[in-house]
Specification:
Keywords: Signal. This protein has 116 residues and is mainly α. It is built from five helices and no strands. The longest helix has 24 residues.
């Protein structure tokens, strides 16, 4: 009984924070066909569409392998950025994360909290 009482606050905390925390680190599920939709328009070259799909698949594989190594803040902001316009792209997401990773040494160190 005492063990259950001790576990209850932990379970409540996980229930309240779990979905938000999971959303920050979940690997996105995009539809490459939607991202490459403009390549499939009237008069578009079929090879261009196939190339776009191939690029999206390659970017997805690369992201799958390296997703956890990117900081959560970068994953969150790049994911939001890649979804602007309604056609999210693995290529766009990967590019954003790579640029953020390259800029990491240029970022100022975090400021310590101010004592009150």
């Amino acid at each position: 009984m005492r063990g259950a009482r001790r576990a209850l606050p932990v379970l409540i905390g996980l229930a309240l924070c779990g979905p938000a925390a999971a959303q920050d680190v979940d690997f996105p599920t995009f539809t490459p066909r939607a991202a490459c939709g403009l390549e499939r328009g009237a008069g578009a070259d079929p090879a261009s569409y196939r190339g776009c799909l191939s690029d999206e698949r390659a970017a997805r594989r690369t992201l799958r392998r390296s997703w956890a190594r990117f900081p959560i803040e970068d994953r969150r902001s790049c994911r939001q950025e890649s979804e602007i316009g309604g056609m999210p792209s693995y290529v766009g997401l990967l590019t954003c994360l790579q640029l953020a990773d390259d800029a990491l040494p240029l970022r100022p160190p975090p400021m310590p909290p101010v004592a009150r």
